[in-house]
Amino acid sequence: MARPSNLVLLTIDTLRPDHLECYGYKSIKTPRINGLASDGILIEKAYTPIPLTLPSHASIFTGAYPLFHGVRDFTGFTLSRNHTTLAAMLKAAGYSTGAVVGSAVLESRWGLNQGFDFYYDNFTFSATQNWQPIAERTGDVVVREALGWLDKNKGKPFFLWAHLFDPHDPYKPPPPYDRQYATHPYDGEIAFTDEMVGRVLDYLKQNNLYDSSLIVLVGDHGESLGEHGEKYHGFFIYDSTLRVPLIFKLPGAVGLQGRRLTGPLRTIDIVPTVLQVLNLTGKVRATEVQGRGAYSALLGKSPLADLEAQAEIFLPFYHFDWSPLVSLRRGRYKFIDAPKPELYDTVADPGEMRNLYAEKTAIAAQLKVLLRQDIARYMPKDAAAEVPRDVDPATVEKLASLGYLALSKGASGPPLDKKLPDPKDRIEVYELIRDGTLAAQREEYGRAIRILTEAINREPGSLVARFQLANVYRVVGSLDKAEGEFQRTLELRPGYVLALRRLGEIYLAGKRYGEAEVAFKKVVAQSPDDLLAWFNLGGLYVIKDRWDEAVGAFRKAQELRPGDAKVQIVVARALLKTGDLDGALQAALAAAKLAPKMVEAHQTAMEVYRRQGKAAEAEREAGILERIRAKP
User: Domain range for residue 535?
Assistant: First the structure.
């Protein structure tokens, strides 16, 4: 019996098809993706239902619209186990399943790990950085980990997913692409990503796996690059961010190489198409899939059906109290339902520059009715449960490090009786906030303050702008101004824990210990998983010589981060101060096990052994310390 075909899924973040050589772009060299297209079938018009990484991948893996699978933004939403992922389907069919992701926005906590035997996220959080933690990894690391897993699992049918995040802003291509594309760094990131794709393809070929594998390469969403006033993605639903590259390399498909299909095809069509290619349709459990299989069209046996395609973006509502946007594409026309509705002929006007809503009222009305019908059809019965939950502050900061203006809010949708601003009328404010945030990340603090102040002048009620400005003031040491902005942030949203924690840090720095303690206690009451709040609270108790309470706070931090050697050593030193020698030794040895070269861990262990009268053990630790210090 022939071994089933393998599946390799390569998702590339923020990738516009019209910036790939195989899609006709002349200003870049992408030879490895070109080669994959030459060996497979390229879809010229493919679309994502949402231009955000987490929900778009949820659609890729479930074959369903965000409305149905319930992941509608990048904060507070988790893919429910009621929705079967492609990985779970293939695992049930006997496949080994492995994934490596390049961004913390796809951490396992958000539910995409369902069905994977191996899911490599492992994004660390640094408590010492001024601005935000590191929350992404470069493509070379992704590919190294992915091929490491594959090397151990290539002996049986496998499904490997590698997510390459590099084309996402900020655009910082590595050498030599930084020099080759100095004036077009976005293209430089794509060229680097092309090289990483090539490493995966080379491994498959060298191990005689290429011909027998189904390989799917797809973008999760595009990038606006200034079109319609949007510099990046996630705010509008024009085709600059909805259209994605999509390439299928079929297993053993002799004679089918180098074909191009106009489309349309949707990323929700990937799951049913993969199941058809792997001969698993009807053989694995799948929850409702809105996508349709396209295997027959890929084989050239039938044309692609002219499918309707939905799209949505709720980020303007969830983060700014502006109107969400929803669209429907049918044939050549695309309708965008907004406070100021839009209709475009995407064949005659692919840039969507001429709004035909007032001219073609009948077509607009028809598409609006169809859109409402589709929404009613795909709205799950338990939709009331699919509301975003508040996200812990550390996660908010991770997301902010990726350029996402992260702010969770607990509401499922806009109130029907409230007229909300059209995002088209707020794009300049949004981009000011984003530019100010990016300037702060680049440590251009004066520029960040000017830009964010301008955003607040235009939109005084913007919680995100207020918070970001306050944080910049905090970083540059203008604590009075930071305090004022954090207070205004809390006036806009009482109980916003991240602002409360920052306010507590300002109080602590100003030796206003009573106010700091009140602030930190409010934070941990609302957000018990806030590591930094517990750390700060413990530090405050140390200052006040309240050691038993300090130990309690540090112990909470230890529970949250047991694998962090720095947390363990802080606990050890606090326990040592209280006279708990056994507890201090246990924590010190745990720190030494996690970080064998940590001087503080061995010093603490040596000190405890000496107090316990264990000379041999103390001498052993002294020897370890001497060897550590002797090495440069």
Answer: 393-562
CATH code where residue 471 lies: 1.25.40.10
For the entire predicted model, the pTM comes to: 0.84
Beta strands in 447-588 (DSSP E): none
Higher confidence at residue 110 or residue 456? Answer: 456
H or E element, residue 532: helix 531-543
**Which of these, 513, 522, 524, 594, lies nearest to 557 by C-alpha position?**
524
DSSP code at position 175 = T
Are 20 and 97 found together in one domain? yes
Residue 226 is part of a domain; what is its CATH number? 3.40.720.10
Assess contact for 470 and 502: CB atoms under 8 A. Answer: yes
Tokens in use for 631? 């090495």
Contact 616, 584 (CB under 8 A): no
Q: For residues 45 and 305, give the distance between their C-alpha atoms in angstroms, rounded to a whole number.
A: 13
DSSP label at 81?
Answer: T
Contact in structure between 262 and 256 (CB atoms under 8 Å): no
Structural domain includes residue 525: yes
Cα Rg, the chain, nearest whole Å: 27
In this prediction, what percent of the chain has a pLDDT beyond 70?
91
Which residue in 102, 83, 114, 81 sits closest to 268, CA to CA? 83
For the record, the structure tokens of 193 come out as 């990503």
Distance CA 601, CA 599 (A): 5
- Beta-sheet pairing, 118-120 with 96-100: parallel
Which position has the token pair 């390569």? 10
- Cα–Cα distance, 533 to 502 (Å, whole number): 9
Q: Which residue has the higher pLDDT, 77 or 224?
A: 224
Q: How many angstroms from the chain centroid is the CA of residue 426?
A: 24
Judge whether residue 6 has pLDDT over 90. Answer: yes
Tokens of 626: 């001497």
Helix and strand counts by DSSP (H, E) for the chain? 25, 13
- Residue 465 to residue 488: CA distance in whole angstroms: 11
Residues 522 and 587 in one domain: no
pLDDT in tens, 526-564: 889 888 899 999 999 999 999 999 999 999 999 988 888
Q: Say if CB 10 and CB 218 are below 8 A apart.
A: yes
What's the rounded Cα separation, in Å, for the pair 239 and 242? Answer: 5
Structure tokens at 476: 């540059």
Q: Is 69 helix (H, G, I), strand (E, B) or coil?
A: helix
First-to-final CA distance of the chain:
58
Q: How far is it, in rounded angstroms, from Cα 129 to Cα 131?
A: 6
CA dist list (Å): 578 to 157, 219, 538, 612, 617? 56, 55, 14, 15, 22
The full DSSP string for 565-627 is: HHHHHHHHHHHHHHT-HHHHHHHHHHHHHHSTT-HHHHHHHHHHHHHHT-HHHHHHHHHHHHH
Digit-coded pLDDT (tens) for 460-497: 988 889 999 999 999 999 999 999 999 999 998 888 88
Question: How many independent structural domains does the chain possess?
Answer: 3
The β-bridge relationship of strands 342-345 and 333-337 is: antiparallel
Count of C-beta atoms within a 10 Å radius of residue 249: 24
